[in-house]
Amino acid sequence: MHPITTAHYLALSLALLLIGTVGVLTRRNVVIILMSIELILNAVNINLIAFSHMWQHATGQVFAIFVITDAVAEAAVGLGILIALFRNKETVQADEIDLLKW
Amino acid sequence: MNFLELIWLIPLFPLAGAALMLFFGKTLDPQPVSEVAIAPGVEPIYEHGHAHHGHGHDHGHDHGHDHEHGHGHDHGHDHGHDHGHDHEHGHAHSPLKFLINLICPGMILLSFLFSAGAVWQLTQKAHRTAEVIQFTWLAGLPFHMSNGQLATFHIDWGFLLDPLSSVMILVITGIGFLIHVYSTGYMAHDNGYYRFFGYLNLFVFFMLMLVLANNYALLFVGWEGVGLCSYLLIGFYFHKRSAGDAGKKAFIVNRVGDAGFVMGMLLLMSTVGSLRFTDVNAVLHSGAFTPEVAGVGTLTIISLCLFFGATGKSAQFPLFVWLPDAMEGPTPVSALIHAATMVTAGVYMIARSSALFELAPITGHVVAIVGAFTAILAASIALVQTDIKRVLAYSTVSQLGYMFLALGVGAYWVAVFHLMTHAFFKALLFLGSGSVIHAMSGEQDMRKMGGLKDKIPVTFRTMWIGSVAIAGIPGLAGFFSKDEILWQTFSSEKGSTILWAVGLTTAAMTAFYMWRMMYLTFYGKSRVSAEAAAHMHESPVSMTGVLSVLACGSVLAGWLGVPKLWSIFGEGFRTFENWLLPVFASGAGEAVKEVEHSAGLEWTLMFTSIAVAAGGILVARYFYISRPDIPESIAAAVPGLYRTLVKKWYLDEIYEYLFVDGLCKGGGNVLGAFDRNVVDGGVNGAGWLTRFMATLSAWWDTWVVDGTVRLISFVVKMASYPVCILQTGRVQAYAFFVVIGVLVFFGYYVVR
Amino acid sequence: MLIDTVLFYIFAVMVLIGAILTITRRSAVHSAISLIVSLLGVAGLYLLQQAEFLFAVQIVLYIGGIMVLFLFVIMLVNLDQAAKERQFSGGWMVALIAIGAAGAGIGALLWRGFGSLHIPAPVLEGTPAGLGNTEQVADSLFSTYLLPFEIASILLLVAVVGSVIMAKKRI
């Protein structure tokens, strides 16, 4: 059995990223899209921690903390938007909302 | 405390007071609307006398007694019902009003204390100037002076205290404080109380800026500022048309003079390269400019321009016409601005520029002649005026003429000396006249007065002192300064016998008209209307107290400048001259150029002027007490001259004809013809041309410009069609494009 | 060493299975539960790599905070209708292909650099000044990254205000 290297972590991170991206692109339910975004952010964190461990340096962990902070903010705002959206449009399906154009 | 370092604070106190009044005054002294609004058809309030004595006789009676018992100005006391309106206790004064009485005179008092401290410390210094430069105001551009040298246009916000300005600040803050106190009584029942005090404080601020400035530009700031305040205060009763007009007249006439000042200032800048007094004096003293004995040189033009500015501010011929009209303002304003301080700004400015005027003898002659002419002209008009305040106004013009006469013959310190003594007795006379008007329920016509001396004894006594002082009876302030002016006019090398004779005649006339005023007002038999007589009362303590203080000043101020001839008095009695002379000493170290005369001649002249003054008083007594019919018969004998004098030599009419009708309307006709033919022709031609061009350009627009634009928009529309398809508005589609971007990005690195 | 390897695979499987379940479940609540599993796996991976502080943060913040938020919203928003409808959007096949291609590209790059990512030797006592993980992170966070830290706090404030405004009944 190979010893676990950073590359293993990166591969795992890649897989998680892809799964998250698939969730964002294919699911219609906005709640689940937001969860998928969390998956992507976790993929990033795994990556950061892996390199932090590899270089024995705390910077990667600090960045991970910032990513988590962003994730919190993003979840709060995203869910706030979701509630406002649901109140106005009576739907949580992403492809029924096409406001992002002029 | 080093007051000399703090001279910049002196003007700031009144400014703070003004700011407080103008921003928060309304809160302190709110007024019911009905008082401000003037009912249609009702004669608007004139002075405050009408305001609370004009109507409602029954109630007015009581007030009269209240005042007689010396209760002073009782703010709680209600005068509202005298307006003939039905609000019985309509405006009980705001309890906060005493704050105004505290703040405004208090600020001036603070200024006075700081001034006194600074002047005291100045006397302790060997070198008697103190200059504080606060910050740079205009910094900057280098420019070529008229002699080709490079200089920098640099103006500081700086303050200069030297003997000259120390005299001025003491006069301004001292007399200003007294007049503020007087106003608390005089204006007590007036509308716009806070506004009045705000303006008055603002005025003191600007006046202090004027005299404390260390350069001409800053002086000009104060110069214009006092003009503004003068305008505001003349038009204080703005609902009265004549007051508004008088304000405008003062403002416009002053602007004419100011144009001269500005030109003089700029010429000075380009000639000397600086506007700072010390620099200018240094350059002028350095010998770079020789006195222009004959012919008109740059310095003569500069000094003439500055003098023209002074004629506007200080009411000299030909620009004095605004000052008599300025009497429309409240009486304390007339006393403070139009007698004691602002009108002397021109005298101050010329005294400040003495180094310049020393080098321009022709201007000196002009100044002296204009001064003498103004003095006698105004005095002649004052002979026949019947309005008590107008007599004083013309008297002021005349006394200012004296000051200019002194300036013109090079006796600068004497001019400033007369300025100071005049400030005392003229403020006294004006405030006294205010007290008379107060007693007379707003009546200003001396023909309707008479016999008041027992009714208003304090006012009478103090005004008696003032009149003796201005007439030139020895021992009182006016004698010393006026006699010194006459002596200098006679003896100085720039003076002449003719100017002296004119001055002497004016002195006689001054004595005559002042005592004519006194006899008409206080002596003889009462011509007071029954209505006014019923309300007659002495003014409150705040007013009479100030009158008494000023009366003391009118007696004592002159003893600072006792003539050299009275050798039994020591140097201490010539403090004023010794104090001021260093300021005017020319750099070359030449002593005062006084032609030697025998002491006997000086004694003779002095007795002549005393005799003339006494003669004037006696003639007035004879005319108006012993033989009251004589003035009328004289007037009847020379009707033309009499009318001319009453009409003020028709100067207003001449100006009206020359400038208003002549320049504006007559010039208007010429311009009208020019307009119709040349300008209109040009305009019409231009119009036709424009239309033709417009037709051309419309065609060009439609086919070329519009065509191009449409083509471009069509192309863009076609090109954008595929992009439009991509814009679905769905967030997932956009995320998909992002993934495509990632794909392309990594694809490039993989394939590479 | 072996136990590390085993634990890695266990956690990796937790992460991937959880993630896949998250994006495939019809019910949003099930998705959320699966996501918790996945996040727990990630937390375990942090622990494996001596990032103990982040491990705690992951548990407390993610699983304790964000997921509760998600569950709240799921309760607030009526998802019954959405659960009955089609779960995947129309272009799912295209998206999958594009993602697969992108993943293949990244994977290829990863494969190319596999060797260079080998950890030479695990430095067990390798904390520079003998400091614990939390001290290390704090050291870095409050010295070098102090400004970003403060900016992050402002970001959170803005997010709080923004989400409150978003969720208000009448904007």
End-to-end separation of chain B: 84 Å
Stretches with pLDDT under 50, minimum 5 residues of chain C: none
Kindly state the percentage of residues in helix of chain B.
55-70%
Mean pLDDT of chain B: 81
Strand percentage of chain C lies at under 5%
User: Can you list the strand order of the major beta sheet of chain B?
Assistant: 1-4
How is this structure best described in words?
With 102 residues, chain A is an all-alpha fold. Chain A contains 3 helices and no strands. In chain A, 60% of the residues are buried. Chain B is mostly helical and 752 residues long. Chain B is built from 29 helices and 4 strands. In chain B, the strands form 2 sheets. In chain B, strands 1-4 form a two-stranded antiparallel ribbon. A two-stranded antiparallel sheet of chain B has the order 2-3. In chain B, strand 2 and strand 3 form a beta hairpin. In chain B, helix 8 runs antiparallel to helix 9 and helix 17 runs antiparallel to helix 21. The radius of gyration of chain B is 33 Å and the shape is elongated. By secondary structure, chain C is mainly α. Chain C folds into 2 domains: 82 residues, Four Helix Bundle (Hemerythrin (Met), subunit A), CATH 1.20.120; 40 residues. In chain C, 74% of the residues lie in helices and 0% in strands. Chains A and B meet through helix 1 of A and helix 29 of B.
Question: Which helices and strands, and how do they pair?
Answer:
The complex is a heterotrimer of chains A (102), B (752) and C (171).
Chain A: H1 6-26, H2 30-55, H3 59-89
Helix pairs in contact in A: 1-2, 2-3
Chain B: H1 9-28, H2 33-36, H3 47-53, H4 57-68, H5 97-124, E1 130-138, E2 142-144, E3 150-152, E4 155-161, H6 163-186, H7 193-212, H8 216-234, H9 241-272, H10 277-285, H11 298-313, H12 322-325, H13 331-340, H14 345-352, H15 354-358, H16 361-382, H17 388-408, H18 412-439, H19 457-471, H20 477-491, H21 497-522, H22 530-535, H23 541-556, H24 575-584, H25 599-626, H26 629-637, H27 639-646, H28 651-726, H29 731-751
Antiparallel strand pairs in B: 1-4, 2-3
Chain C: H1 2-24, H2 28-48, H3 52-76, H4 80-84, H5 92-112, H6 133-142, H7 146-167
Helix pairs in contact in C: 1-2, 2-3
How would you sum up this structure in a few lines?
With 752 residues, chain B is mainly alpha-helical. Chain B has helices at 9-28, 33-36, 47-53, 57-68, 97-124, 163-186, 193-212, 216-234, 241-272, 277-285, 298-313, 322-325, 331-340, 345-352, 354-358, 361-382, 388-408, 412-439, 457-471, 477-491, 497-522, 530-535, 541-556, 575-584, 599-626, 629-637, 639-646, 651-726, 731-751, and strands spanning 130-138, 142-144, 150-152, 155-161.
